């Protein structure tokens, strides 16, 4: 009897249930009105719930335009798809108009979206059921262990990624107290002890901005934190580099890990000792779970696609963007509106994928007009929205960037000017630009050690 049952499950898996007409009406309605988009989002229906790949692409384009506050219609969606080189894959302009024409009079997009979601849930159940059948036949582990794994598969089939839904305080208290009892850190360590003492690491769902004037060190610190997570902790990291090429990033990683002068690497003027140092770190860098994306035209949708691709094998635990101001997106009415959309979009990415997002940001010329040259969060260039969206803002200041003979040459101040979950403070670290890294000051000179000495006195 087991043979026919298995065959039936296999047949269902080969012909997944779906309703193409309901998918078309849903998308057509979304192209016609913003109210329909909101109704569909409330189902909730995500791009991946569509069976037809073209519909997934179109839904994602509509969703991204809506999130940016841009007009949604056949023309704007078609333009965005063309920018992403997905226009033909989505069926072209004729198909977009076919979607609109498929909407009957007084059609309810939310109603049809629920039909699409119903079929998506059925496909998920079939997939989970097939895997459970295979699990039972393989027989690995005890019966209780197999049942527990089966329950987990069913849970994953009914859980909507990125939207756990409202939770009661009993569940929240249990989860929070469990984490506290386990001693699991709040966030991913930055690699700088004194900075972690202030911000408690990079927390999931947080947007952390590293802001500075040009050539002060924001790219170095952004890469340094990303490298610490990937090479030091073994965490999958996506580094979206809009300013430097992947080769430039790699040279900086080599300088950081091998302690080889970055200028020598760039010029190719390496000694035998340099090559020995590089050989020692080669395997460590090559095996690290750091993914570098240096696509010249990088949008929020592009970043989401990269994160989803990584999720199939090694879900990213950190996203680093260098830098926010170079992101691309649909044309906005002003540069301020455009940067505000990028800022809000990165915060939504942090929440959607439940990971910290570390983004470098540019400051305006405000610090240069002050006597001490120290930056403030109000100096964030082009948009105050960055200040509002960020959970943590770290401003960088180096006296030797303005005065080469400064007594504080080689030091960098990390000014934590906003910290939603903790205090603000200034942390001093050692800036080693020739090795493309920022490190803690020697213990005798660190702010924490200085504070302890002052307290003892």
Please, could you describe this protein's structure?
This protein is of the alpha/beta class and 457 residues long. The protein folds into 2 domains: 1-161, DNAb Helicase, Chain A; 187-456, P-loop containing nucleotide triphosphate hydrolases (Rossmann fold, 3-Layer(aba) Sandwich). The protein has 18 helices and 11 strands. The chain has helices at 2-14, 20-32, 34-41, 53-67, 74-83, 92-101, 109-138, 143-158, 169-182, 193-199, 218-232, 246-258, 262-267, 272-286, 300-311, 335-353, 385-389, 447-456; strands at 187-188, 202-203, 207-212, 237-241, 290-293, 318-322, 357-362, 392-397, 411-419, 425-432, 437-440. The strands form 2 sheets. It has a 9-stranded mixed beta sheet with strand order 5-4-6-7-3-8-9-10-11, sandwiched between helices. Helix 16 (335-353) links the parallel strand 6 and strand 7 (357-362). Helix 3 (34-41) packs parallel to helix 7 (109-138) and helix 7 runs antiparallel to helix 8 (143-158). The chain is globular, with a radius of gyration of 26 Å. The termini are far apart. Mean pLDDT is 85; it is low at 1-13, 159-164 and 445-457.
Keywords:
single chain, 457 residues, alpha/beta, DNAb Helicase, Chain A, Rossmann fold, 2 domains, nine-stranded mixed beta sheet, two-stranded antiparallel ribbon, 18 helices, disordered N terminus
């Amino acid at each position: 009897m087991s043979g026919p049952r298995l065959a039936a499950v296999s047949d269902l898996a080969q012909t997944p249930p779906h309703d193409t007409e309901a998918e078309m009406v849903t998308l057509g309605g979304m192209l016609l009105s913003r109210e329909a988009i909101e109704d569909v989002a409330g189902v909730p229906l995500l791009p991946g719930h569509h069976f037809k790949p073209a519909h997934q692409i179109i839904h994602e384009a509509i969703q991204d335009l809506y999130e940016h506050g841009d007009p949604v219609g056949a023309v704007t969606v078609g333009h965005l798809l063309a920018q992403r080189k997905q226009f033909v894959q989505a069926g072209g302009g004729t198909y977009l108009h076919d979607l609109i024409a498929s909407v009957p009079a007084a059609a309810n997009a939310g109603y049809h979206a629920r039909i699409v979601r119903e079929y998506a849930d059925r496909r998920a159940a079939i997939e989970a059921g097939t895997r459970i059948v295979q699990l039972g036949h393989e027989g690995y582990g005890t019966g209780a262990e197999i049942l527990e794994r089966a329950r987990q598969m069913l849970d994953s089939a009914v859980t909507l990624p990125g939207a756990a839904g409202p939770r009661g305080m009993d569940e929240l208290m249990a989860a929070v107290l469990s984490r506290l009892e386990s001693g699991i850190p709040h966030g991913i360590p930055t690699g700088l002890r004194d900075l972690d003492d202030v911000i408690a690491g990079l927390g999931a769902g947080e947007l952390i901005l590293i802001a500075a004037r040009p050539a002060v060190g924001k790219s170095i610190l952004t890469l340094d934190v990303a490298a610490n997570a990937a090479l030091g902790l073994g965490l999958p990291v996506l580094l979206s580099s809009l300013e430097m090429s992947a080769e430039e990033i790699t040279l900086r990683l080599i300088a950081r890990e091998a302690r080889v002068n970055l200028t020598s690497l760039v010029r190719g003027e390496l000694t035998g000792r340099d090559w020995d140092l590089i050989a020692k770190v080669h395997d460590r860098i090559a095996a690290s779970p750091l993914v570098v994306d240096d696509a010249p035209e990088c949008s929020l949708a592009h970043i989401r696609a990269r994160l989803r691709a990584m999720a199939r094998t090694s879900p990213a635990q950190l996203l680093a963007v260098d830098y926010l101001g170079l992101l691309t997106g649909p044309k906005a009415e002003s540069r301020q509106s455009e940067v505000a959309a990028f800022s809000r979009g990165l915060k939504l990415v942090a929440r959607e994928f439940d990971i910290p997002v570390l983004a470098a940001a540019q400051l305006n010329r405000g610090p240069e007009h002050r006597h001490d040259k120290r930056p403030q969060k109000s100096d964030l260039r082009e948009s105050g929205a960055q200040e509002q969206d960020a959970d943590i803002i770290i401003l960088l200041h180096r006296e030797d960037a303005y005065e080469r003979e400064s007594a504080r040459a080689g030091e960098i101040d990390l000014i934590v000017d906003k910290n939603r979950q903790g205090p603000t403070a200034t942390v001093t670290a050692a800036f080693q630009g020739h090795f493309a890294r920022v490190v803690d000051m020697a213990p005798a000179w660190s702010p924490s050690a200085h504070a302890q000495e002052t307290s003892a006195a």
